[in-house]
Amino acid sequence: MIRVLIAEDMHMIRSALVALLSLEDDMEVVAEIERGDEVLDAALRVRPDVAVLDIDMPGLDGLSAAEQLSARLPDCRTLVLTGLSQPGNLLRALKVHVKGFIVKDAPAQTLTDGIRRIARGERVIDPELVAAALETGSSPLTARETEVLRAAASGIRTAQIATQLSLSQATVRNYLSNAISKVGGRNRIDAIRISRDAGWL
């Protein structure tokens, strides 16, 4: 029996996933989580074989949760569900030892087959995402530029970003200017949109 943890913040989708996996004779859903920052504690408690994680969750994104699982519970393999619009996330997923990366609108059998293959130790990556990731490429932003742009994406002002990251306001503006230029954005908002679509934030 494959023990599965599901982390998805949207109730209807989470319920649909639980219902789908409950139809499989060789799978048991042992935990349902709606926040990313609750994944690790739940996994340590129920010890799943496979964790199915949404990327966009409150508290902590799915890839950061996968990184925590890899460090604290390496026997638990992770499968990430994502939208095709953010292929750059695939590169980050591979860095944090995610074993499966499947688009949300894939057929149901793709998910169940993927869980079985991952439980056997295989890696399952949607070929469309691989192609899109290769086309998009890796992020052109430095770690600091990414950090500043991510802070800006939360809606806070330059002065608040400076305080939060222990930088001067001039330095924050320089990082934002560099980020806008590197991603080909027209302004800060455009750079955030481009970076999010590419999965660089």
What level of helicity do the residues show?
Answer: 40-55%
Separation, N- and C-terminal Cα atoms: 36 Å
SS element count, helices: 10
Q: Unreliable stretches, pLDDT < 50, 5 or more residues? A: none
SSE series: EHEHEHEHEHEHHHHH
* Strand percentage: 5-15%
Approximate shape:
elongated
Radius of gyration: 18 Å
Q: What class, by secondary structure content? A: alpha/beta
In this structure, how is the largest beta sheet organized?
6 strands, parallel
Q: Please, what is the average pLDDT? A: 90
Write the layout of secondary structure elements.
Blueprint: E1 2-7, H1 11-22, E2 27-33, H2 39-46, E3 50-54, H3 62-72, E4 77-82, H4 88-95, E5 100-103, H5 108-119, E6 124-125, H6 127-136, H7 143-153, H8 158-165, H9 169-183, H10 188-198
Parallel strand pairs: 1-2, 1-3, 3-4, 4-5, 5-6
Helix pairs in contact: 2-3, 4-6, 7-9, 7-10, 8-9, 9-10
